[in-house]
Amino acid sequence: MSLRPTPAALQPSLGLTGLGVLAALPAAAQTPPATLALPELNVQAPTPPRYRADETPVVRMPTDVREAPQSITVVPRALIEERGATSLREALRNVTGISLAAGEGGFSGDNLTLRGFSARNDFFIDGIRDSAQYTRDPFFLDSVEVLKGPSSIMFGRGSTGGAINLTTRMPKQGNSGELTLTGMTPFGLRSTADVNLAAGDVAVRLNAMAHTQDQSGRTRVNNERWGVAPSATWGLGTNTQLSLHYLHQSEDNVPDFGVPFANGLPVPVSRGAFYGLNNLDRERTETDVVTATMRHRFADGISLRNTTRYGNYTRDIDATAPRLIGTVTPSTNLANVLVNRQPQVRNGVDTILQNQTELRVVANTGPVRHQIVAGLEAGRETAQLARFTTNARPAANLFAPDFYQPFTEIRTLNTNTETTAYTVGAFLVDQMQLGEYFEVLVGGRYDMFNAEYTQLAAATRVSTNFNRTDNMFSWRGALVFKPWTSVRTYFAAGTSFNPSAEALTLAANTANLDPERNRSFELGASWDVTQDLAIRGALFRIEKTNARTPDPTNGTLNVLDGEQRSDGFEVSAAGRITRDWNVIAGYTYIDGEITKSNNPAERGRQLLNTPRNTATLWTSYDLPYGVQLGGGLSYIDARYGNNTNTVRVPAYTRFDAALAWSVTEKVQLRVNALNLTDKRFYEGVYQGNVTPGAGRTFLFTVAARY
């Protein structure tokens, strides 16, 4: 009997699979040929600090983090895992100047403010916008970079307070794998996998995740999601390289809109008070992102990269926003107060198709060394959103809401909106080294942003249409002075813009407005205290010079007569104090104020959701016998849920701890305690409701690597 030969098209895949199986086998099961005895080599080098990521390239900039004249915080994968972060929001606890926001008007997913300004539309994956509404999971991430200050020169519209860029794990040389299994309290299970296989200059990688968790202290609130992120690279290590990456993530959650305010503060109910209804409150999302990247290196210091991405994001949410019924005063007996279960019912689809071309050049012109990045991008984004009204949900008792109260929902389509937006942008940045002590950065970007918006009222079948085109130029400049090799100081300035259709929506009161303009000034410095430990600091001011505010002659329209500013400073440290002692810490002070507004109640008030003081600390110590002890805190000052400062959320400090034991080089056990003291605190904040944070949570993880 003859065997049919393996088709040539399948041989590379089968070969990679075989290599992966061999790599996973115990050493004793792999019998090497005993043909030649080689001399034993003993190569030792110090391991790099786990929390210091100065060599991380800055997306759309010609330098790495160490050389960038800008405040940048990098959260590396090692830190995400040590702290037991199972969401991007948890990973961002390592960054100061950030506070979470709630889901305004039915918005869900990640939402936050950065240096005093909303960053809901300022999430990016490998430099391409990812502003859809879903809960980002770090299972496929190598790091999270938070770039602070206006960044339109890099990303186009938005990024007033900064931007959050997610760097994906891509195929690499060698065969490796990691599997984690986690159990959580009060109930939760999580599993992740990361497998990399390589053969020659071809490598593939698969990241996968499954997660279900009941939120500690929040009765009925549950989050479930799963995701996969396969990728492949051809030409690894060569001058020409092609990479493909796909991300899929599905969510099925019980959304949490928290508790209402009374007399300007969260109502004093139990942490577990939940005002949703059984079999009604639900949130589903589907995220699909496909990316193709081609890189070519022409010579040392000259490379070209082209990236094409298509993303499709669907969401369906039916949530309950609690609102008090009637007027509540300090003398009101809250036991008699009822809660209106306000429906938030939406479903929609967002898409993005974008292409970026980026040229990087390192060259000398006489005594000047240039690091240049130039780029061109074009894209199309769409947003479709259907809003529903429903029959009235039964009122709930403020202190004892009945989750199982009978109710049958009847939906009626209210409006259906569709937006199509086109973006074309071109940018150039040059960081020039002038001798030993000075560097100068100059850069500019031009953007054309067009949005076409249609809203159909279901009841009247009347269609409302708006069209807006904005052309904006953004710039950035910086002067760097290096008095010693271990010290860098800089002064930087730049601009950004916020068009009316920034979030892919328009309205009658904004459709005729030019973009809001922002400018930033930053004086900063960094000091490499040792080879392993760096300290950074910066003074900053961000000004929104023409904020939208009501027209004093026509309350149905807005005008660009407002002004807002954010003044502050920050200091941070990252690295290793001794061989076994790692630390990352930061503190930020922000004085955010509405300095000019046509609404007298807003003038002189603190910016929405902007705490004056934020601080974070995480430190770990490597003990003998493979034991690692870690702990830290995150502090968020009091902040307001609206621009008139009539609702306020108190400050809080959350403590976390971790204990890990490397049983062998390939097996580790880890216990994380989140909110160790079971602190009662509030996270997502908006003018009508506030979301309580999770209570004490334990995570028990076993990780196996090969």
TrEMBL record:
The keyword Membrane applies. Residues 234-676 form the TonB-dependent receptor-like beta-barrel domain. Transmembrane segments: none annotated. Its main location: membrane. Residues 65-163 form the TonB-dependent receptor plug domain. It is found in: Cell outer membrane. Residues 1-29 form the signal peptide. Pfam families: Plug (PF07715), TonB_dep_Rec_b-barrel (PF00593). It is a multi-pass membrane protein. NCBIfam families: TonB-siderophor. This is TonB-dependent siderophore receptor.
